[in-house]
Amino acid sequence: MFNKILVPLDGSELAERALNPALTLVQQVKGEAILLSVPVLKEMFVSGGNGYSVLLPEDSLQESQQELMGYLQTVAQNWARPDVLLRTEVIKGDEASVIVETAAAENVDLIVMSTHGYSGLTRWMLGSITEKVLRAAPCPVLVMRSLDPISRILITLDGSELAEYSIEPGLEFAQQYGGEVILLRVEHSQESFLPRFGPPQMPSEAPRDEDRGQKKVSDFAKIYLKRMVESQRLSGQHIETAVSFGSPAEGILDFAELNQIDLIVMSTHGRTGLAHWVYGSVTEKVLRGAECAMLIIRPPAGELN
């Protein structure tokens, strides 16, 4: 359950996109949301009555800290909701490190942040702070891109046990939002499915053409997805399944666009074969290319090696 959520804010409207989904989640479980900001150095030269003067770094940070404290108090007042405990924190340090360390110290269940927030007191650009947080976060991270409601949720799988760690939090998110769920598996080729399930029982003669081999892989992928749906943890929810062929990242992005997906859920690790789903490859490509929100799941530490 997402009982405690961390929301990093930088003073921009774009960063505040994280507020509504975060508070919606914790309100349903009567949980807690921590609003976090990190003071940054401002311009070293400030205008005054006699022209310009130098603003010392410690004074700059102090001024930024005071502004952020007032900003977070205003946000907390404006976004107050019944059954939600809102707490504000302003902590000095490196932005990404502060977010990750606060998430660990507070034992939060989820970090919700926007991919970028250009107009505020700092920036949360994808490729810098967001990616650093994703690489080190001790919990799932929900990356928001817009204010659009989340109603269609895509959970991506590669056939590995580690990738399957995305199923449970993805379904929980769907339950709390009342969203539809689709399990998707994108296949490179018929060899990509063999490590978990062994060689398929094929006729002794070689396949007549590429379509026959693709159909075999599609059949095995459908069986695998059916097993996921029928497993105990998925009981009670209607879940659709889909199989696609091609490059994993492109396949996920194309499917999400064609099917009007609002949220993609995937694990940062899923080591099948040549570790196609390690963060820095498929997950990173999808994160950079997706137009919808993403929920990134990090499996338990003991499962990462």
Explain what this protein looks like in three dimensions.
The protein is α/β, with parallel strands linked by helices. The chain has two domains: 4-144, Rossmann fold; 152-303, 3-Layer(aba) Sandwich (Rossmann fold). The chain contains nine helices and twelve strands. The chain has helices spanning 19-28, 57-78, 95-106, 129-136, 167-177, 194-197, 210-230, 248-258, 282-289, and strands at 4-8, 32-37, 45-48, 51-54, 85-90, 110-114, 141-144, 152-157, 180-187, 239-245, 263-267, 293-297. A ten-stranded mixed sheet has the order 5-2-1-6-7-12-11-8-9-10, sandwiched between helices. A two-stranded antiparallel sheet has the order 3-4. Strand 11, helix 9 and strand 12 form a beta-alpha-beta unit. Helix 3 packs parallel to helix 4 and helix 8 runs parallel beside helix 9. It is elongated, with a radius of gyration of 22 Å. The two termini are 25 Å apart.
Radius of gyration: 22 Å
Q: Major sheet: order of its strands? A: 5-2-1-6-7-12-11-8-9-10
Helix content: 25-40%
The average pLDDT score comes to: 79
Give helix and strand order, one letter per element, not per position: EHEEEHEHEHEEHEHHEHEHE
Distance between the termini: 25 Å
- Say which CATH homologous superfamily of the largest domain is assigned: HUPs
CATH architecture of the largest domain: 3-Layer(aba) Sandwich
Low-confidence stretches: 117-127, 190-204, 270-280
Strand content: 15-25%
The secondary-structure class comes to alpha/beta
Can you tell me the CATH topology of the largest domain? Rossmann fold
H/I helix tally: 9
According to DSSP, the number of beta strands is 12
Domain count: 2
- CATH top level of the largest domain is Alpha Beta
Task: Outline the biggest β-sheet.
Answer: 10 strands, mixed
Using the alpha-carbon principal axes, give the shape. elongated
